[in-house]
Amino acid sequence: MRSYTIYLIRHGAVDETNKGRYIGRTDVRLSPKGKEQLALIRDTAGYPYPEVIYSSPLLRCTESCSVIYPEREIRTVSSMSECDFGDWEGKTAEELAGTPEFADWLRNSDKTPPPRGESGKDFAARVARGFERIVEELSAENTSTAAIVTHGGVIMTILAMYGLPQAESYRWRMDNGYGFAVRITPMLWMRDRVMEVFDTVPFAPKPEE
């Protein structure tokens, strides 16, 4: 029974003015510097070349795909979008400080959504459904390798739910343009819904002998 390798890659950097802001479903573009950084990683360290490429439909991900995997067909998957921060999109913590809703969200973001936004629990459930559908699709198409170009929050959520070794989501943080390689063994996946996190993306250099 064949295994499946999936490369989870975080999109490139966005404009500096968006740093510190809650940017989830807001459709910002890659910054020129973000594109340059991705191209540099592609041309030096190199990205794996999978059979199929999936992406969040948001521009910062589809534009990342066009740099990392130029002229490749991309399958956009809405469930791989970042968390929806509702009325807080584009705002900073400083701008929201002092409001009761923000304080409640900070105490328990899993159950408390931003106004007209998405709770942590709902976000995780959406991401889980989408990821499991991708795995099912790879199996149905007899495809061994895939990349998912998506958001940092999506990747951390996937790895916290399914990854071995087990770790809290914050331990799976990665810089823009980087990510992790996972291996799914069908028997283990069907029995326990877990997968092996076996490398970083781009691949870590092997130690010299």
Describe the protein.
This protein has 209 residues and is an alpha/beta fold. It has one domain: 3-Layer(aba) Sandwich (Rossmann fold). The chain has seven helices and seven strands; from the N terminus they run E-H-E-H-E-H-H-H-E-H-E-E-H-E. The protein has a seven-stranded mixed beta sheet.
CATH architecture type: 3-Layer(aba) Sandwich
User: Order of strands in the sheet with the most strands?
Assistant: 3-2-4-1-6-7-5
N- to C-terminal distance: 33 Å
Strand content: 15-25%
Uncertain regions: pLDDT < 50 for 5+ in a row?
Answer: none
**Secondary-structure element string:** EHEHEHHHEHEEHE
Query: What is the makeup of the main sheet?
Result: 7 strands, mixed
Overall number of structural domains: 1
CATH topology: Rossmann fold
How would you classify the helix and strand content by structural class?
alpha/beta
In angstroms, what is the radius of gyration? 17 Å
In the CATH hierarchy, what is the class?
Alpha Beta
Q: Portion of residues in helices?
A: 25-40%
Helix segment tally? 7
Kindly state the mean pLDDT as a whole number? 94
CATH superfamily: Phosphoglycerate mutase-like
Shape by Cα distribution: globular
Could you tell me the number of beta strands? 7
